[in-house]
Amino acid sequence: MTANPTSEELAGRVAVVTGAASGIGAATARVLAERGAKVALLARRADRLEAVAAQITEAGGTALVVPADVTDEQSMAAAAERIAPLGTVDLVVTGAGNMLLSPFADGRTEDWDRTISTNLTGVVRTIHVFEPQLAAAAQAGGAADVVNLSSIGATAVAPSFALYCATKAAVSHLSRNLRTEFGPRGIRVTNLEPGVVDTELMDHVDDAPSKQWLQGLIESITVLSDRDIAELIAYTVALPKHINLSQVVVLPTQQA
Ligand SMILES: NC(=O)c1ccc[n+]([C@@H]2O[C@H](COP(=O)([O-])OP(=O)(O)OC[C@H]3O[C@@H](n4cnc5c(N)ncnc54)[C@H](OP(=O)(O)O)[C@@H]3O)[C@@H](O)[C@H]2O)c1
């Protein structure tokens, strides 16, 4: 993405990546570490985080495994304490999320609660717990970034996507509103809206028609990779600190 990315590009930065156990979060953690950032890896599955951390350290990077649940305020506060030895957090990527699809009339209320608590409340809690450190980093004259993983679903509509798309629309508007408070304080907010990316996200869909529709889409086009999104995030946060790529929509070329 960058013309000549270097291993020093993000040297000195301290990053927190939620959802780092798989997919976009794991790829982002790897790429940020390759570019020199120290990276705290957050998700619930410790074994998966350990595997990602091992890849990072074998490649010469710095990674800290911090099992945490973004829906749980205490868990996130404890995570922030565990990350403290890495230094002041100046880069937060909110990659934790789920996509539980079903027709609204099925009334899968537990799925709806999980969707809202992970995709929206989880993003809010994550930003809340690290905001003081982001502010301190900006105050000290450095770059400070929040990168929110929204989705093209923030503006798209489709049957069975109501709750997922509602949370993504909320994250996109949260990002826009936060910019009005964070921007003047030197904290960039980037809202990223990807189209289809090949990750585990779809594996949790158990509604047969939704799964079939998604599989058909994935098989009919060349979708994005988690690394594509990670490179885009690394490019965005490595820009000079007065440049805020505030809204990024990235689609597979063939996705309508
Ligand atoms: N894949 C796509 O096509 C696509 C497109 C647009 C946007 N996105 C968004 O990108 C983000 C990342 O998704 P992905 O595609 O990389 O899917 P993924 O591989 O399923 O990654 C989701 C990550 O979130 C973590 N997670 C889920 N619930 C959590 C919780 N309560 N606390 C902490 N971590 C939690 C999971 O790890 P644990 O289960 O171990 O906690 C996992 O590492 C999501 O917000 C998704 O909506 C994806």
Q: What's the topology here?
A:
Elements: E1 14-18, H1 23-34, E2 38-43, H2 46-58, E3 62-67, H3 73-83, E4 91-94, H4 109-139, E5 145-149, H5 162-182, E6 188-194, H6 208-220, H7 226-238, E7 247-250
Helix pairs in contact: 1-2, 1-7, 3-4, 4-5
Bound molecules: NADP nicotinamide-adenine-dinucleotide phosphate.
Q: Enumerate the distinct ligands.
A: NADP nicotinamide-adenine-dinucleotide phosphate
The profile of the biggest β sheet is: 7 strands, parallel
Proportion in β-strands: 5-15%
Low-confidence stretches: none
Q: Strands of the largest sheet, in order across it?
A: 3-2-1-4-5-6-7
Order of helices and strands: EHEHEHEHEHEHHE
Q: Label the overall shape.
A: globular
Distance between the termini: 23 Å
Radius of gyration of CA atoms, rounded to a whole number: 17 Å
Quick check: average pLDDT? Answer: 96
How many individual helices? 7
Number of strands: 7
Query: Share of helix among residues?
Result: 40-55%
The CATH superfamily name is: NAD(P)-binding Rossmann-like Domain
Domains counted in the coordinates: how many?
A: 1
Assign the CATH topology.
Rossmann fold
CATH class: Alpha Beta
The appropriate CATH architecture is: 3-Layer(aba) Sandwich
Structural class: alpha/beta
What does this structure look like?
The protein is α/β, with parallel strands linked by helices. The protein has one domain (14-250): NAD(P)-binding Rossmann-like Domain (Rossmann fold, 3-Layer(aba) Sandwich), CATH 3.40.50. 45% of the residues lie in helices and 14% in strands. The chain has seven helices and seven strands, in the order βαβαβαβαβαβααβ. It has helices at residues 23-34, 46-58, 73-83, 109-139, 162-182, 208-220, 226-238; strands at 14-18, 38-43, 62-67, 91-94, 145-149, 188-194, 247-250. A seven-stranded parallel beta sheet has the order 3-2-1-4-5-6-7, with helices on both faces. Strand 2 (38-43), helix 2 and strand 3 (62-67) form a beta-alpha-beta unit. Helix 3 (73-83) runs parallel beside helix 4 and helix 4 packs parallel to helix 5. The protein is globular and about 50 Å long. The model has no long low-confidence stretch (mean pLDDT 96). NADP nicotinamide-adenine-dinucleotide phosphate (NAP) is lined by residues 18-19, 21-25, 43-45, 48, 69-71, 95-99, 118, 122, 149, 151, 194, 196-197, 199-201.
